[in-house]
Amino acid sequence: MSNDRFTETTSTGWFSRIGSSITGVLVGVVFVLASTALLWWNEGRSVKTAKGLAEGAQITVEARPDAIDPALDGKLVHLTGTTSLSDPAKDDQFNVTGPDLVKLHRNVEIFQWVEETKETTKTKVGGSEEKVTECLYTKKWDSKLHDSSEFRHPQDHENPKPLLQSAEF
User: Which helix (H) or strand (E) holds 40?
Assistant: First the structure.
């Protein structure tokens, strides 16, 4: 397995840290107010949904799956039955099928570079901060496509384009 490691170091001054802290407090206050309003709205929707489900449970009528009853037209019905297939699921790309396949899932994985970053922050004398970012590049199999152009160090870490996509049939 191949991997590469890169390290970046950045420094932040004391005044920049104070400014960021004040900005963070103001943004936090806005988030608390917004989250309170969203929580109030969501709880109201939850109560309406619970009342609707309870009402639906009371008016549900049992139906037979082998016959259509016109008297149940427009009513909320519940039925159970056996699943039958006229045409089983099939992946035409690989000609994979089976007589009783209701659903078929194709999972595509690609051997590619994956970027993992690790940040450590150290406070220095005088209040400034030093941030060290370590990037580790490892090749591994993954079903999620990692866009190598988004890497901090994309050179020599180009990922191939997949020839197939994951799919459900």
Answer: helix 14-59
List the structure tokens of 137: 């590049």
Tokens coding 68 = 């259509």
How far is the C-alpha of 115 from the C-alpha of 108, rounded, in Å? 20
The pLDDT tens digits of the residues spanning 44-80 come to 999 999 999 999 999 999 999 888 899 999 999 999 9
Cα separation, 42 vs 14, whole angstroms? 41
Q: Which domain holds residue 50?
A: 3-168
Angle at 11 between CA 8 and CA 14, to 5 degrees: 160
How many distinct structural domains can be found in the chain? 1
Ranges 57-61, 76-80, 85-89, 145-149: which has the least confidence: 85-89
Return the bridge partners of 61, or none. Answer: 77
> Are the C-beta atoms of residues 139 and 2 closer than 8 Å to each other?
yes
* C-alpha span between 1 and 3 (Å, rounded): 7
Q: Give 168's contacts (C-beta < 8 A, 6+ positions apart).
A: 103, 104, 105, 106
Give the tens place of pLDDT for each residue, 97-136.
988 889 999 999 999 999 999 988 888 777 778 888 899 9
Q: Could you tell me the pTM of the whole model?
A: 0.52
d(CA 143, CA 141) in angstroms, rounded, equals: 7
